[in-house]
C-alpha cells in the first residue's frame, strides 16, 4: 500500500510538472509596444523562431543566424540609431518544426513580438497577423529523391509521378499547393501528412516513390549537405512572397516598413545580396536574385 501511494504521488507530481511546462511553452509572447518604447526610451523586442534552413538556424558554433535573424538585427540597429532608444532582444525558440502551432502562438502574442520565419504572405493570413514588406520572393518547388525521372510539366504529373505518394504537413502553403495540383491534374494523388518538415525530408531521402512541395531553402540546404534530393524545375512556382510576422495589433508595423524602404530599399542593397549568398550559397542566391 505504501509503495502504491509513493508511485501515485510521483505520477501526480510528474503530470503537474509536464502540465506546467506545457503551459509555459504555449503561453503568449509579450514584447514592449513601440509607443511605450518611445516614451520610456527603451523596450524589449521578442524574436521568436523555429529553426529553418537558411532563415533561422544554428551555425557550427551554436550561434543563431540566418536571413531572418540578420534582417531583424539590422532593424534593431536602425531603430536604435534613428530614434535614440535602447532595445533589448529576447530570443524565444519554439522547439518544434510545426508552423501551424507556431503561427497560432504568434497570432495571440502582444506588443513587440516578431516571428523570424519563412511565412508566405496570403490574403487570409493578412486578416490575422501583420507582415513586414516581403523580404524574399520564394520558390515553391516539387522535390523528390534524386533517382526519380524529371517531371516534364505539372500538367503531366499524374503520368510522370504515377504510383508515387505526396507528403506534406497541415496548415501550410505547401499543403495548399499540393491540394491545388491534386484538384487540377492529379485527382488520384495520395497525400500522407507528417508532423514536421524534417520527417518529410527523411522520407524523400529514403523513398524513391515519395514527392513533396517545399520551399526552395530546404532543397538548397539539402544539396549543400549532399542529400539525395532532386528539384523538378517544371514544378517551380515563383508566386509566393515571404514576410516576417507580427501580431495583428502590433504598432511596430509602420516602423518595419520604414526600415525596409530606408536608404534606397533593403532588397536593393549590397548587404542584402551578401546576406543571401552567405546563407543560401552563391548558386542558390543567384537563382533567387535573378529570377
Automatic annotation (TrEMBL):
It comes from the Bacteria. Residues 44-283 form the Solute-binding protein family 3/N-terminal domain. Keywords: Signal. This is Putative glutamine transport system substrate-binding protein. It comes from Flexibacter flexilis DSM 6793.
Amino acid at each position: 500500500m505504501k509503495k502504491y501511494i509513493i508511485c501515485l504521488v510521483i505520477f501526480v507530481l510528474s503530470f503537474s510538472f509536464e502540465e506546467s511546462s506545457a503551459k509555459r511553452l504555449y503561453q503568449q509572447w509579450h514584447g514592449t509596444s513601440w509607443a511605450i518604447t518611445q516614451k520610456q526610451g527603451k523596450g524589449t523586442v521578442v524574436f521568436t523562431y523555429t529553426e529553418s534552413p537558411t532563415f533561422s538556424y544554428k551555425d557550427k558554433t551554436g550561434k543563431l543566424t540566418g536571413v531572418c535573424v540578420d534582417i531583424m538585427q539590422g532593424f534593431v540597429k536602425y531603430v536604435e540609431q534613428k530614434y535614440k532608444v535602447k532595445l533589448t532582444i529576447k530570443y524565444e525558440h519554439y522547439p518544434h518544426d510545426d508552423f501551424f502551432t507556431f503561427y497560432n502562438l504568434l497570432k495571440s502574442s502582444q506588443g513587440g513580438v516578431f516571428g523570424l520565419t519563412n511565412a508566405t504572405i496570403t490574403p487570409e493570413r493578412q486578416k490575422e497577423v501583420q507582415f513586414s514588406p516581403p523580404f524574399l520572393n520564394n520558390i515553391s518547388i516539387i522535390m523528390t529523391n534524386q533517382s526519380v525521372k524529371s517531371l516534364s510539366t505539372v500538367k503531366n504529373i499524374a503520368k510522370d509521378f504515377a504510383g508515387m505518394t505526396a507528403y506534406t504537413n497541415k496548415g501550410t502553403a505547401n499543403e495548399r499547393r499540393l491540394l491545388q495540383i491534386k484538384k487540377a491534374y492529379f485527382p488520384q494523388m495520395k497525400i500522407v501528412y507528417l508532423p514536421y518538415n524534417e520527417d518529410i525530408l527523411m522520407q524523400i531521402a529514403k523513398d524513391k516513390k515519395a514527392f513533396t512541395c517545399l520551399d526552395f531553402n530546404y532543397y538548397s540546404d539539402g544539396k549543400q549537405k549532399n542529400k539525395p534530393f532532386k528539384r523538378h524545375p517544371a514544378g517551380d512556382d515563383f508566386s509566393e512572397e515571404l514576410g516576417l510576422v507580427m501580431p495583428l495589433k502590433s504598432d511596430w508595423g509602420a516602423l518595419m516598413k520604414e526600415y525596409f524602404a530606408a536608404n534606397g530599399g533593403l532588397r536593393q542593397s549590397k548587404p542584402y545580396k551578401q546576406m543571401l549568398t552567405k546563407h543560401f550559397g552563391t548558386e542558390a542566391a543567384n537563382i533567387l536574385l535573378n529570377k
